[in-house]
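notes to self, project folder thing:

trying the whole complex as one job this time. last attempt i did each chain seperately and stitching them together was a nightmare. three parts in total, labels are on each line so i dont mix them up again. if this works i'll redo the older ones the same way
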Amino acid sequence: MKKLPLSKIDELFKALSAGQKLYIPADDAAGQAKFTVWQEGLALSQKLNTVRSAKDLFFPQVENLVGFKVTGKQIELIESRDPAEPFVLFGVRACDARSFDILDKVFLAEPADTYYKARRENGVVVTMACTRPAETCFCTVFGIDPTEPAGDVSCWMDGESLYWQANTEKGEKLTAGLSMLEDSGEEAVRAQQEKTREILGKLPLKDLNLKGFDGEHMMELFQSPKWASLSESCLGCGTCTFVCPTCQCYDIEEFNTGSEVKRFRCWDSCMYSDFTKMSAGQPRPTQLERFRQRFMHKLVYFPTNNDGMYGCVGCGRCLQKCPISMNIAKVIKTLGEDKK
Amino acid sequence: MQVNGEFQPTIVAFCCNWCSYAGADLSGTNRLQYPANVKIIRIPCSCRLNPLFILRAFQRGADGVILCGCHPGDCHYTTGNYYARRRMTLLFSMLDYLGIEKERTRVEWVSAAEGGKFAATMNDFVAAVTKLGPNRRLEDLRCSKD
Amino acid sequence: MQQGLKEKAIQLLKDKTVDRVVGWKAGEFFYDLTPAVFHTPEEIEKDFVFSVFSGANLSKYLIAESRKGGKVAAFLKPCDTYSFQQLLKEHRILRENVYVVGVQCDGTCDIEKIKAAGCDGVTAVREEGDGLVAETLYGEHRMSKKDALLDRCAVCKSHKLVVYDELLGEQGEEQDAGRFAEVEKLERMTPEERYSFWRGELSRCIRCNACRNVCPACSCEKCIFDNPDSGARNKAAADSFEENMFHIIRAFHVASRCTDCGECSRVCPQHIPLHLLNRKFIKDIDELYGEYQAGADMDTKPPLMDFTKGDADPSVVYERGGDKA
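result (full assembly):
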């Protein structure tokens, strides 16, 4: 365990950004936190979490894949992927840190997604423990401990100091170059964790019951009559999927620039009416089927295919941002009502 | 685009078939000069102009966009240009509100007999846009300028 | 806030005036109400809420609901009634299948403002006189309701309910609360300052489409941004041009039909002040073509579907634009 007085945090950021990009959560013009490239003078946000999740850094909303240029009968392939650059991602919360495990299962399974892989290999994740969880937090339901976040390096912050613990080889390598860190005992961190756990015990959503959300009960859940009322006011917008740290669906599209065709991928949303639309028609014709699909995926299909790992990390962003206040917590509660 | 090191704007002129396109023809037959920067796109009526076309023109490399139509009251389809007049006024006001230079867009009413007016308008518009420089605020960096 | 909605809803079901009711359903934290359809008095008793967090405009749901057969009741606040009437004008809602209960309203609140005032971990909010009391994981907070009002409610343009079958509360009047003040402020800036402002705002857009999907004026069954045949199909903004394009086009498409209900700005997860785009159009229309309020009546034509022979020439923008007020 190492530590650093908070007065020296800019020194740390400066060292971390030597030779690579450092992303820290910083407040944007509307006062919400966002992962921003650090520059001298940029202050660390005091907000609990960013609006856009950390997945942005590994799976950006728009990513160039390849370009095509046609001259006569010749097609030239133009490599247009962003160059792989090392970077440090600082201030990731435990929920987003778990989301990387989920995204890894999807993107790094064979055949691996080389675009995602390159970013993952180049990124060093420095996580930050939570001290003031919100009422919308429920990461503990999924076995995540916000006081002990996973990552290449884990950090804790109190009124005076930043505490720093390297966990992986990448983390050790990063720590090696940081001479401003001093050795430290663990007492302050343990004390903070105790205090935070007391608050975790009071969170309104801590008792969300996941019993019955598994492969065995798949058809029963799928056919539940409750989906109709759950989905009836869903606008089909896509806000939940875009702020969600684990949503990973994308569309591949092309843009004709006039001299070249650029093929790129961009985030898609299973909430959209044309998602999974194909020449044979649309197998999810109404919002009910689409809404059901999203939550069945996160709560049933994904854990069934991935040794019980749920596709949700309890970050609470969908609770905060859905225009009509529908969210995964309400779905879990409503579908769980029958299982008493 | 650059020609011999000098900035030459790309201008897209949407001309209605019945009046302004004929007016453009007339300036041609009268050998009245106007710059080759102007690319004319013929539409059946000024009312056909969808605001998306204007944005797309800027996206694809235009530095200035001008709509030419029949004089209000003389529309071949009777009322088309009245709607276009309202539409373009509001659209140009919105573009100005977003900080896009207002001199990059214009509407000019040119009749089939006004070959001179057409040439003069184009000369004036090209000069005004040249002064502004290349379109940067509504630029799509992916689109080639050649 | 207006009382008696729950009882009214139950009465309308019991005396078979309607077979279902559209209202707001209780959530977990008192501020997270979801629009919902209630079919039985028991459901209403259990979950129906009308509170300072009933900001959601229910009129758009009636496009689909009025076509599902039977008769549906809807509780509409004054601003919602303008959207409802505008949709009637556009033949989107089948009037005969809807029973409108007009509800007087003195403003709905923004949980984001309450949180920004220092309330983390809000678990409950209640009204107490002119104020709000927020219970949180970290203690109790009090603030005046006025400070917590949604931006659109702070400049409420009308307490008048323009269409209803029944009224709960008193009929109100239109009022001038200075809702164009922010637009005027932007108009007085130089074009460079405005460009910089809008780039700062629109670059935060994540194309979640919440604004489009909640907007009662955006009721196209196939939006051009979703239609591959439109030439404008676009799912994400690849650069600053596409960021601008979506918002310019959407604002233009709803111009002269936007009732200024403020839902777009309320739902934006990135807090982009989208209402400033729509209000610019409304202000321009008022100044150039005569004052017009979409949804105020059933007869007047929306200004963009109308004209006069003496309309201003587009060159008027040269005189009005730039950095003049």
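what i see at first glance: Strands of chain B lie at 2-3, 6-7, 11-16, 38-43, 64-69, 105-109.
need to look closer tmrw
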